[in-house]
Amino acid sequence: MSGRKQFDVDEALDRAMRVFWELGYAETSLDTLGRATGLGRGSLYGAFGAKDELFRRSLERYAARYEHRYEEAVDAHAGDPVAAVGAFFDVVLDRIGDPDVPVGCLVVQSAAQLPTLSPESRKAVDRAVTAQRRRVRRALDAAAAGHEPAELDSLALLVVGVQHAIVVLSRTGAPMAELRSLADAGVQAVADRLAVTTR
């Protein structure tokens, strides 16, 4: 029987993810990660590699936990882009309002810290942001018959931009009513633009 201390990798990743989520990459130290996970530096390196690699593993963990919620929300309103965008924002607000997780969004907060990240981690964050934009763009495809692709691309960018604004404002302590109002304004902007046929 080995005398080495065993630990739950998934639980350690959850705790590391939460630290990066709460503090951001730049403010997260190996000592902080060690205290959160209960692992010494040697064990952290042995299990996950350097801080940069653990950060990317945390991003993957975050995606595995939340991406399907966006997919399900959008897919539940296939054919109705306005309702799909509204459901998308509902997921954003539900996560922000969850008292059991940190405020904000790990991906958005990491995007704001790109200069502090390695090239590999920058690419990982960019992939996550791009995936969200593509998800929204797919929700808008139901309106494609009356709108130019470039216009729908622009609307997808607007929706993701509003999402990012909501996340940032949530970190400042903005009340949920204000965040909901911003989301509603985003939905209304999409509805107004789609109501105008360009072809």
From TrEMBL:
One of its GO terms (molecular function) is DNA binding. Keywords: DNA-binding, Transcription, Transcription regulation. Pfam families: TetR_C_13 (PF16925), TetR_N (PF00440). Signal peptide: none annotated. It comes from the Bacteria. Residues 29-48 bind DNA. InterPro entries: DNA-bd_HTH_TetR-type_CS, Homeodomain-like_sf, HTH_TetR, Tet_transcr_reg_TetR-rel_C_sf, TetR_C. Residues 6-66 form the HTH tetR-type domain. This is TetR family transcriptional regulator.
